[in-house]
Structures are given as structure tokens and as C-alpha cells.
Specification:
With about 200 residues, this protein is an alpha/beta fold. It contains 8 helices and 8 strands. It has a 5-stranded parallel β-sheet. The longest helix has 16 residues. It is globular.
Length: about 200
């Protein structure tokens, strides 16, 4: 059984959402948005009662997820899969952490798409060099690591300092986290730091 969490403040293209939904009869969909317009049919559960402001939808999603996970029995955890629809890397990290802590399957098709694109660029570097100012994934990774080894920084701070597209930064941070090179400063922090495992291995020229 799949449980979908749609961050409609971050992704609200109906066609894209529908293309990624693989619904079965028992699946559940929770849509988080303060907007009144419905992006899917009435069978979905719309959650609109949360404060207005930055990251308020994110806090609501994690709080709702935590409550649902706490109500699952051990046997149910083996059959449930939680799927987040959002390109917000910081929300995804918190969402993934909660699910893995509860030993349930978790996915984010939007982050997976970014990873596939990044991997394709790494495998086929010849298609990347279109102009001298274009930065390859390797260039971005190197610059991001330089910043993170100097001091803990958030994704937004990295994008602002390097003047690189936030989506490229998100993809880079996702990859570095999966490679266990970086980690959160602490569970509640938005800042990234070098992981304990990689601390002695990372060498920046």
C-alpha cells in the first residue's frame, strides 16, 4: 500500500503529478496546500490548515507523517511505502529520515529524476560543455565541498555564494549525502557539514 504526500506549494503541475502517480484502490493521497484550487479529484485528502509562511507546509507534512508512522503496527510497516512529491531537498531529507527510522519504504520520484539527470551528465560529459561558463557536476561538487569544509552551510547559502541554480545544488547535496560525504549538522539543522566518515578523506586542492 502506498501513501502519497504531495507538497503542492512546491510541485503543482497536474500533468506531471498524474504521470508519477501509480494508484491502486487502497492507496492514500495527502495534498498539502493553502490554495483553494484542487489539483486532483475529491478522493484525495487536502490539508490546508497550517500557518502562512516559509516552510510551514514542510513542518505540517513532517508532523502529519510522524503521526501516521506512529500509528502503524510492526506488520503494517512491512507493506506500506511512503512517497513524497517535492523538489525541496531539505524537506526530503527530513521525510526520508522519519521513514527510515520507522523501517518503512520511502521514495521521492522528483529527487530520483534529478539523480538520473545528474548521472547521465556524468556518464556523458561531452554533452555538457556548451559554453565556457557552464559548470559540470564535478565543478559544482568541488566548489560545494570547499564551502562545506570551511564551515557548516545550508543549501540556500551555498546557492547564494556560488551563484548556482538551487536545483543543481540540491542534486549535488543529495549525491554527496548518499555517498556519505556530508551530513546534517544535527537532526534539526538545515546546515550541512562534512561527515565523520569522510572527514579525514576529503582533500580539496
Amino acid at each position: 500500500m502506498k501513501v502519497y504526500y504531495i507538497d503542492a506549494e512546491n510541485v503543482n503541475n497536474i500533468d506531471v503529478i498524474n504521470s508519477k502517480l501509480k494508484l491502486q484502490i487502497l492507496d492514500k493521497i495527502f495534498i498539502f496546500s493553502r490554495l483553494k484550487n484542487k489539483i486532483l479529484d475529491e478522493s484525495c485528502s487536502y490539508i490546508t490548515e497550517y500557518p502562512k509562511g516559509k516552510n510551514q507546509a514542510d513542518f505540517c507534512i513532517i508532523a502529519h507523517l510522524s503521526k501516521v508512522l506512529a500509528e502503524l503496527s510492526q506488520s503494517e510497516r512491512h507493506v506500506f511505502e511512503f512517497i513524497l512529491f517535492s523538489k525541496d531537498i531539505e524537506l526530503w531529507v527530513a521525510f526520508e529520515f522519519q521513514c527510515k527510522k520507522s523501517n518503512v519504504k520511502v521514495r521521492n520520484p522528483f529527487i530520483e529524476d534529478e539523480e538520473k539527470t545528474l548521472n547521465k551528465l556524468i556518464i556523458q560529459p561531452s554533452i555538457m560543455v556548451k559554453q565556457d561558463s557552464f559548470k559540470t557536476p564535478y565543478d559544482i561538487k568541488k566548489e560545494v565541498l570547499k564551502l562545506i569544509t570551511q564551515e557548516p552551510v545550508s543549501a540556500k547559502q551555498i546557492a547564494d555564494k556560488l551563484k548556482i541554480n538551487p536545483q543543481d545544488i540540491s542534486a549535488c547535496l543529495t549525491r554527496l549525502k548518499q555517498e556519505k560525504i556530508i551530513e546534517r549538522l544535527d537532526n534539526m539543522s538545515t546546515k550541512w557539514t562534512v561527515s565523520k566518515i569522510a572527514d579525514e578523506k576529503i582533500k580539496i586542492n
